């Protein structure tokens, strides 16, 4: 359920609907809606709005979970506290017509409470009880409390930890950072410095740097099955030029260059 929930957020709400980094056919979009509902993180439209605002106004008052207001605020405080007036004002100017033109998203908006209740709590609790005789108490504790809370906090580490600790191989002038710990927790969303430089890359990380990036593997499988297509990613030359011009010098490519030059 942890994997299913994160796939819904990472592959669906994030890479597909927010950034349009690839296209998905109807069956895959329906599957993403189910997986996203299992994570129970509000509606797809609300999620997309917040994340697009995060990219457009990163680490300003218009960023819904800016760490400028503190680490705790960036992690969970933004959920508990009133939205900043700057965010409220500028979010009204955000165009979400592309999202609302998708009938799957519209269906999810209309029935989101029912969908989250069924796929986020009822089925995950009932399945182990009726299929392998789990006790009610263990099923409820593991799914309603442990799995749900861990999933929420794992996704929130992108807003907090990945904006405070890590390396900046692609742009040293921004706060988002690459963090292997966050990447492990979020099944592929921890290369946050790369993502903010190339938000339209369906991999959310550089080619060959996909350790624990199960979301990319899932999308690749869907592409082979004909469900995902028009996968976007930058050229290797563009990535290399960005690393050389804006990176903080921590990219492995630079150490390989240094070694080869010293050998020469």
TrEMBL record:
Span of domain Fatty acid desaturase: 8-199
Protein origin, superkingdom: Eukaryota
TM region positions: 26-48, 111-132, 144-165
One Gene Ontology CC term in the entry: endoplasmic reticulum membrane
PROSITE patterns: FATTY_ACID_DESATUR_1
Any Gene Ontology biological process: unsaturated fatty acid biosynthetic process
Cofactor list: Fe(2+)
Cellular compartment(s): Membrane
Entry's free-text remark on domains: The histidine box domains are involved in binding the catalytic metal ions.
Name of the protein this chain belongs to: Acyl-CoA Delta(11) desaturase
